[in-house]
């Protein structure tokens, strides 16, 4: 009896030994993550609106993670260079991506996309929504949206419209504008709307559609022509500013959303730790204030989750991709 019991216990240990060891090393992996700085890849230039959101988030996440979160700007091809880089990165949680609507639109815009936004990532969570603003250089003649519509119709060959590349939200917003006014404008791509905004402020381009996260200070200082916001309703950060719909652009609606992604195959315990850091970061009063001051709205907590991000990415992909395919704006 005793012997059998002994044997039984021994067998139990033989069976449980590796499992227990596995559990212990899994738990250690979670406890140990992160043991070095995490890189948050931003697909557009430093100082631009995606970068602004990324830096606010990185600081707050690093407080929760106890490690630095380093922002790295990897520019090019409307954000697809950065997304492809993270899709191929080591799936250990140390290289993650922040990206916006471009994750949903890229498959309809790039014939040779090397990754699938819906399959090649682990989904950490959504971050914040940001309205866009339609702007002109300070000395552009039209002062209102109604005047702008007439002006571009009369000057279509001359008017330039800056963007951050195919798949950037500025480009998407520009496409919606061109559709609304039935005019094809002269699109000028930059590697982010940071440099595009500098060009607009310097009078080198005529128009730009960009997020409030970078345009608000310039609008408030009256350094640009400001036509309206792209949301259906007026926004808290610019209560007196008309919407483009109020300016006569029926149905014009554009909002920028952001998500954080890790390469596919990143261990679930690591992605869960990153989701927790994201959620904690977004509760940080300093981040909340910074984003609120710039017109950004932190998404509800149920969206700050893997399911919240993946579900929304699918919804947006289903909405935009057919529309973009009919517009035939694809490239190689
Ligand atoms: N606002 C940019 C875009 O048009 C991106 C950026 O520079 O952050 O997608």
What does this protein look like?
The protein has 332 residues and is of the alpha/beta class. The protein folds into two domains: 167 residues, 3-Layer(aba) Sandwich (D-Maltodextrin-Binding Protein, domain 2); 99 residues, 3-Layer(aba) Sandwich (D-Maltodextrin-Binding Protein, domain 2), CATH 3.40.190.10. Helices cover 46% and strands 18% of the residues. The protein contains eleven helices and ten strands. Strands 1, 2, 3, 4, 5, 6, 7, 8, 9 and 10 form a ten-stranded mixed beta sheet that branches. Strand 5, helix 6 and strand 6 form a beta-alpha-beta unit. The N terminus is likely disordered. Aspartic acid binds next to helix 2, helix 6, helix 7 and strand 7.
Strand content: 15-25%
> What is the CATH superfamily classification of the largest domain?
Bordetella uptake gene, domain 1
CATH fold descriptor of the largest domain? D-Maltodextrin-Binding Protein, domain 2
From the N-terminal CA to the C-terminal CA, the straight-line distance is 75 Å
Number of DSSP strands?
A: 10
Mean pLDDT: 89
Q: At the first level of CATH, what is the class of the largest domain?
A: Alpha Beta
Give the low-pLDDT segments: 1-28
- Domain module tally: 2
CATH architectural group of the largest domain: 3-Layer(aba) Sandwich
- Major sheet size, sense and barrel closure: 10 strands, mixed
**Cofactors and ligands present?**
aspartic acid
Q: Into which percent range does the helicity of residues fall?
A: 40-55%
Brief account:
This protein is α/β, with parallel strands linked by helices and 332 residues long. It contains eleven helices and ten strands. It folds into two domains: 167 residues, Bordetella uptake gene, domain 1 (D-Maltodextrin-Binding Protein, domain 2, 3-Layer(aba) Sandwich); 99 residues, Periplasmic binding protein-like II (D-Maltodextrin-Binding Protein, domain 2, 3-Layer(aba) Sandwich), CATH 3.40.190.
């Amino acid at each position: 009896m005793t012997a059998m019991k002994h044997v039984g216990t021994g067998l139990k240990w033989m069976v449980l030994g590796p499992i227990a060891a596995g559990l212990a090393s899994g738990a250690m992996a979670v406890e140990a993550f992160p043991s070095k700085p995490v890189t948050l890849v931003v697909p557009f230039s430093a100082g631009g609106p995606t970068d602004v959101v990324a830096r606010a988030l990185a600081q707050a996440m690093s407080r929760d993670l106890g490690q630095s979160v380093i922002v790295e700007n990897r520019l090019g091809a409307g954000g697809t260079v950065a997304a492809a880089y993270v899709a191929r990165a080591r799936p250990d949680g140390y290289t993650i991506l922040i990206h916006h609507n471009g994750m949903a639109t890229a498959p309809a815009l790039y014939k040779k996309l090397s990754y699938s936004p819906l399959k090649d990532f682990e989904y950490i969570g959504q971050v914040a929504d940001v309205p866009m603003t339609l702007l002109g250089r300070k000395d552009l003649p039209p002062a209102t949206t109604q005047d702008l519509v007439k002006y571009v119709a009369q000057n279509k060959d001359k008017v330039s419209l800056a963007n951050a590349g195919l798949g950037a939200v500025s480009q998407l917003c520009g496409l919606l504008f061109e559709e609304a006014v039935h005019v094809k404008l002269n699109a000028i791509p930059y590697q982010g709307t940071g440099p595009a905004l500098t060009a607009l402020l310097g009078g080198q381009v005529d128009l730009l559609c960009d997020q409030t996260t970078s345009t608000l200070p310039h609008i408030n200082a009256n350094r640009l022509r400001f036509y309206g916001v792209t949301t259906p309703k007026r926004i808290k950060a610019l209560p007196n500013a008309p919407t483009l719909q109020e300016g006569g652009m029926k149905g014009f609606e554009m909002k920028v959303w952001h998500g954080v992604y890790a390469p596919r195959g990143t261990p679930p315990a690591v992605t869960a730790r990153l989701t927790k850091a994201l959620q904690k970061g977004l509760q940080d009063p300093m981040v909340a204030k910074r984003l609120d001051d710039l017109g950004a709205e932190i998404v509800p907590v149920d969206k700050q989750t893997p399911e919240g991000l993946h579900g929304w990415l699918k919804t947006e992909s289903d909405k935009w991709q057919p529309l973009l395919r009919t517009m035939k704006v694809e490239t190689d």
